């Protein structure tokens, strides 16, 4: 097989691969301009027509392409009655946090009839990222790929593929998504599960009345393809695979990783994974497919369907049609661990070094809570096991303020917006992954943790099983972080001795294992107000969120720039 050469690179050694010696002097930024009109348009899926919010009438939204070092300029015109913001998932926004996008964290919404121009340089990163709405559940239909090509003159650390193809995995409701959210909030219980998953907006042939809504990728025999896979689903971790074809993972969350071969990948909402596959089978048609990893204990309702697309060999007409790829069962946590433990960072010149010494230790419990049914409230509003489901970090349920935290922080007018006292550890120690406590309540708050510029930070993310045990895809804005350790049960200090400080994965979204923990490290070299939250939208909505504020440094390029003139106001 043609990939063998680079598969044999000694992957565990600390040799720096010098694959891209392109000039680092790149004084003139190339500007890439896009106009994004937030619109409503008719989309028909599963034989029913919906009027969905999207960008320029496209679903999924426009693909953005640029080279590392370019400046991206996106003028957003809000032409719908709803408020909107856009987030550039995984982009550092170094000094330009005004453009990060989470509503009421870094900006007020772009209101109906108004515009805001997002404008930032993308530096020190390359690969597959994506953009999505970051207010209420708008991102269900407002999302697209953001592809950062290597700087001109540099290349991938693997043989160039013959073609590159974005694969956006999504989640589809037949009813209005905002109505699903509103109903969940009114009832205090879980939201209705989706009716379908989608590949590039299309559910595929395994649903009722969806025979025409099938994504087809035409391939040529012998050629190698780079799939840029993005999990844009709202609330579901997914398995993905292609029948009869091996996948070679080469990148995750826009960081190169040591290549490894696999039959399936697992990908949480927020994550991206680049895989290579070679069309090396008998000409014919082969299914690609995705289905849920949903191992919550006790089991939550989940969308138990399978989305499929087709890889179609062009070379010679053939009637061969594969079966579905054999994906792991919805509750196969072992297969998830097996996949995730194969992921190792690729040591390159561009890669930041793994922090060995830690200045700031943070310990965050993440999980669900159940608020007691408020006195006098109707039962219809307490459908979450007799109460109302909420979620928390360190027992604080994040409550969104009414104006932007970044705006308040920058102008030092904090009144009624947020407080700076988010704790470094949970208020009480308990058996986090053991039997639930009797009191499942949390406390409301809008609190941030302040971190000095340049400090080396370790965060232990400890899952809890108070209401149920689930894995939570935790996303930190503004940063990539090293995943130096993860495991089941309650974290213990002694585990630090076995952390991987040599070649840990580098990501922006970590799946904290079911009934387990994960340890992440980063250097706080990006000043700003950074949202940290579960990327399952229902958990974000329930308050599984907090804010890290990295202070300005002393250097000339170490402070947040002034806000732009068109910065939205509340
Ligand atoms: C956005 O809307 C404006 C006003 O209707 C229109 O002039 C412009 O062409 C639209 N741009 C795109 C990219 O659709
Ligand atoms: C949620 O599901 C229930 C039960 O199937 C249904 O009655 C209700 O209309 C659904 N809600 C929405 C907003 O689709
Ligand atoms: C497809 O439609 C039929 C008839 O309406 C129904 O009985 C069946 O349950 C549906 N199947 C799925 C997977 O929705
Ligand atoms: C998922 O669907 C399959 C096929 O319809 C069924 O056999 C299986 O029991 C379902 N699993 C769950 C957990 O609902
Ligand atoms: C997964 O669920 C099936 C029922 O659908 C059950 O038989 C099996 O034991 C479960 N596996 C695990 C690992 O929990
Ligand atoms: C409301 O719930 C309580 C406790 O679950 C139950 O005792 C009561 O009968 C319910 N009331 C109604 C009107 O359903
Ligand atoms: C969380 O906060 C609530 C409200 O203050 C309290 O009742 C509960 O005991 C706390 N739980 C934990 C685990 O800290
Ligand atoms: C927390 O805040 C929400 C509003 O965001 C409110 O509905 C809820 O009652 C509050 N819960 C408590 C325990 O104060
Ligand atoms: C942000 O910019 C500063 C100054 O150029 C640099 O030292 C730092 O590494 C950058 N951080 C990121 C995350 O790119
Ligand atoms: C849009 O945002 C503004 C500012 O926060 C708020 O006052 C208004 O109620 C919001 N409008 C809608 C339709 O949600
Ligand atoms: Cu979560």
From TrEMBL:
**GO terms for cellular component:** apoplast
Q: How is the cofactor bound?
A: Binds 4 Cu cations per monomer.
Reactions the enzyme catalyzes? 4 hydroquinone + O2 = 4 benzosemiquinone + 2 H2O
Location(s), subcellular: Secreted, Extracellular space, Apoplast
Record's Pfam families? Cu-oxidase, Cu-oxidase_2, Cu-oxidase_3
Domain Plastocyanin-like: residue ranges: 38-151, 164-315, 422-553
Coiled-coil residue windows: none
Keyword terms, alphabetized:
Apoplast, Copper, Lignin degradation, Metal-binding, Oxidoreductase, Repeat, Secreted, Signal
Question: GO terms for molecular function, please?
Answer: copper ion binding; hydroquinone:oxygen oxidoreductase activity; oxidoreductase activity
Q: In the Enzyme Commission scheme, what number(s) does this protein have?
A: 1.10.3.2
- The main location is secreted
Query: What are the names of the required cofactors?
Result: Cu cation
Instruction: Determine the domain of life of the protein's source.
Output: Eukaryota
Q: Name one GO biological process term.
A: lignin catabolic process
Q: Which residues form the signal peptide?
A: 1-25
What does the UniProt record say this protein does? Lignin degradation and detoxification of lignin-derived products.
Report the family membership.
Answer: Belongs to the multicopper oxidase family.
Write the protein's name.
Laccase
> Lineage of the native species?
Eukaryota, Viridiplantae, Streptophyta, Embryophyta, Tracheophyta
């Amino acid at each position: 097989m043609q990939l063998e050469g680079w598969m044999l690179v000694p992957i565990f050694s600390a040799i720096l691969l010098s694959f891209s010696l392109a000039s680092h002097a790149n004084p003139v930024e190339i500007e890439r301009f896009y106009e994004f009109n937030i619109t409503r348009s008719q989309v028909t899926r599963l034989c029913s027509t919906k009027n969905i919010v999207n960008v320029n009438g496209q679903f999924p939204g426009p693909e953005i392409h640029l080279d590392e070092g370019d400046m991206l300029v996106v003028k957003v015109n809000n032409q719908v009655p709803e408020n909107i913001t856009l987030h550039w998932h995984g982009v550092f926004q170094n000094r330009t946090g005004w453009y990060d996008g989470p509503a009421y964290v870094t900006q007020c919404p772009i209101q109906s009839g108004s515009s805001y121009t997002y404008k930032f340089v993308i530096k020190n990163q390359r690969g597959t990222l994506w953009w999505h709405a970051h207010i209420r559940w708008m991102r269900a239909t407002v999302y697209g790929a953001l592809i950062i090509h290597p700087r001109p003159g540099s290349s991938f650390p693997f043989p160039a593929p013959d073609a590159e193809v974005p694969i956006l995995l999504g989640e589809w409701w037949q009813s209005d998504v905002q109505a699903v959210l509103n109903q969940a909030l009114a009832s205090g219980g879980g939201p209705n599960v989706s009716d379908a998953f989608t590949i590039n907006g299309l559910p595929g042939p395994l649903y009722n009345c969806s025979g025409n809504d099938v994504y087809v990728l035409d391939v040529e025999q012998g050629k190698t393809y780079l799939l840029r896979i993005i999990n844009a689903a709202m609330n579901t971790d997914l398995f993905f695979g292609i029948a009869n074809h091996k996948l070679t993972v080469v990148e995750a969350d826009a960081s190169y990783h040591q290549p490894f071969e696999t039959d399936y990948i697992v990908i949480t909402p927020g994550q991206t994974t680049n895989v290579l596959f070679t069309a090396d089978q008998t000409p014919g048609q082969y299914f690609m497919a995705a289905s849920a990893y949903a191992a919550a204990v006790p089991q939550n309702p989940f969308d138990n369907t399978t989305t499929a697309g087709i890889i179609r060999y062009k070379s010679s007409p053939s009637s061969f049609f594969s079966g579905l790829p054999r994906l792991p069962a919805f509750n196969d946590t072992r297969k998830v661990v097996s996949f995730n433990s194969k992921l190792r960072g690729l040591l390159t010149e561009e890669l930041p070094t793994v922090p060995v010494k830690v200045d700031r230790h943070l310990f965050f419990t993440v999980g669900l809570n159940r608020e007691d049914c408020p006195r006098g409230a109707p039962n219809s509003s307490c459908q979450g096991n007799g109460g109302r489901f909420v979620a928390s970090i360190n027992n604080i349920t994040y409550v969104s303020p009414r104006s932007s935290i970044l705006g308040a922080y920058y102008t030092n007018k904090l009144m009624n917006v947020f407080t700076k006292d988010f704790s470094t550890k949970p208020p009480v120690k308990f058996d986090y992954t053991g039997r639930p406590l009797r009191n499942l309540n949390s406390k409301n708050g809008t609190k941030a943790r302040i971190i000095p510029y340049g400090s080396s930070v370790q965060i232990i993310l400890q899952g809890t099983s108070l209401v149920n045990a689930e894995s939570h895809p935790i996303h930190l804005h503004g940063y990539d972080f090293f995943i130096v350790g993860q495991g089941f049960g309650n974290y213990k200090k002694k585990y630090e001795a076995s952390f991987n400080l040599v070649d840990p994965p580098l990501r922006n979204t970590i799946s904290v294992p079911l009934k387990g923990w994960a340890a992440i490290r980063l250097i706080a070299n990006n000043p700003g107000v950074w949202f940290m939250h579960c990327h399952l939208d229902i958990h974000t909505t329930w308050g599984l969120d907090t804010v890290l504020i990295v202070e300005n440094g002393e250097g000339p390029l170490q402070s947040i720039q002034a806000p732009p003139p068109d910065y939205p106001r509340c």
